[in-house]
Amino acid sequence: MKLDVEVLRYLSKDDFRVLTTVEMGMRNHEIVPAELISLIASLKHGDTYKILKNLLKHKLVHHDSSKYDGFRLTYLGYDFLAIRTLVNRGVIAYVGLQIGVGKESDIFEVATEDGTVLAMKLHRLGRTSFRAVKSKRDYLRHRSSFSWLYLSRLAALKEFAFMKALEDHGFPVPKAVDCNRHCVIMSLVQGYSLVQVRELQNPEVVFETVVGLIVRLAEHGLIHCDFNEFNIMIDDDEKVTMIDFPHMVSVSHRNAQMFFDRDVECIYKFFAKRYNLSFQDDADDKNSAESDIDEAGRPSFSSISKSSGCLDKELAASGFTRKDQDNMKKFIEGGADNEEDEDEEHVSETHENSLTSLGFFADRRSGRANE
Ligand code: ADP
Ligand code: MG
């Protein structure tokens, strides 16, 4: 693992002071006026400008002079703020290779001072459909300027809260270690995602386990909503771990049945296609009085959800509030309509290059394919 948190020292305390000031300013300004940054940072006037120039050089802020002289944070700038906080808290000490890239996240290996390797997920809501965020300004009217920071922070908060709760209830999930801004630190799952694994010794067992997880989640009041071969990790002993929780909803959600059936369908389809599992006989094998199975032999949402537990309600009482949930839901549901929208103001298109050029992260992915 490349050891690069030293690079944080490229940036002085004052650099971070100015960066934090830009972050704060974005609560009320799409582009934070340079004058305001200078005022709040309360450094010597010339110093703030010198620092902003340095931050700009490292692509931690973006300069915009279309209306007035101002700056906004880039994803990279936000990454640095989160990583610095986590380093200062003693949660991580090193940042290593990128091990995963999702539609709305980047995953890196990180390590603690004593060398324990963990995973760091940086949420990037709006990366693929930033325009969708903009088009939803009605509900983010007062926050449009920092909507992507805000939504990514919510996604991280939600993921962290759900991961912790699921772990407490004995679900096979990564251990949630800490969370700051849009960044979640969790244990590193050994193995590969199901989609990367070419062969399984016991596909039937894995299939049963995975479907069992969807059912058990619903029994606890929750639906994953993105339960598929990309979000199920499997190790050499074919032990299953589920990941990726920002989309989870309660069984009381108005579309719960559809989400549940979609999760189930994904798994059935995948195992039928890749492992030629046939489910035709299931319905006959099961006792028809067994209420949790429908006529097709698949888990039946309506009967499972009748006796659901209330993990969904516990979570609503956690740091992730109902209002947070609503804001995210509006974004996700609204964003889904615009998913194909490519964004000209793509916030992170040069992101990876910037990370690499700073030496902050290693410059290649580890290529964890099974084959
Ligand atoms: P996204 O929301 O962008 O899909 P995921 O949480 O699914 O993000 O992560 C993307 C990929 O990163 C996963 O498919 C997996 O390969 C890898 N990954 C995510 N979390 C971990 C982890 N805790 N340990 C190991 N690999 C992980
Ligand atoms: Mg995923």
Order of helices and strands: HEHHEEHEEEHHEEEHEEEEHHHHHH
The helical percent reads 40-55%
What's the architecture of the domain at 192-242 and 252-307 in CATH terms? Orthogonal Bundle
The SS-based structural class is alpha+beta
Strand content: 5-15%
Largest sheet: 5 strands, antiparallel
Radius of gyration: 22 Å
- CATH overall fold name of the domain at 192-242 and 252-307: Transferase(Phosphotransferase), domain 1
Count the strands?
13
What ranges have pLDDT less than 50 throughout 5 or more consecutive residues?
Answer: 129-143, 335-371
CATH H level of the domain at 192-242 and 252-307: which superfamily? Answer: Transferase(Phosphotransferase) domain 1
State the distance separating the first and last CA atoms.
22 Å
Bound molecules: adenosine-5'-diphosphate, magnesium ion
Strand order of the biggest β-sheet: 4-5-6-8-7
Number of helical runs? Answer: 13
Describe the structure.
- The protein is an alpha+beta fold.
- The chain has 13 helices and 13 strands.
- Among the domains are: 1-73, Arc Repressor Mutant, subunit A (Orthogonal Bundle), CATH 1.10.10.10; 192-242 and 252-307, Orthogonal Bundle (Transferase(Phosphotransferase), domain 1), CATH 1.10.510.
- The strands form four sheets. A five-stranded antiparallel β-sheet has the order 4-5-6-8-7, with helices on both faces.
- A hairpin with a 2-residue loop joins strand 4 (94-102) and strand 5.
- It is elongated, with a radius of gyration of 22 Å.
- Residues 129-143 and 335-371 have low confidence and may be disordered.
- Adenosine-5'-diphosphate (ADP) is lined by residues 99-100, 102-105, 107, 119, 121, 174, 186, 188-189, 193, 230-231, 243-244.
- Adenosine-5'-diphosphate is lined by residues 99-100, 102-105, 107, 119, 121, 174, 186, 188-189, 193, 230-231, 243-244.
- Pfam families: RIO1, Rio2_N.
- Residues 336-346 have a biased composition (Acidic residues).
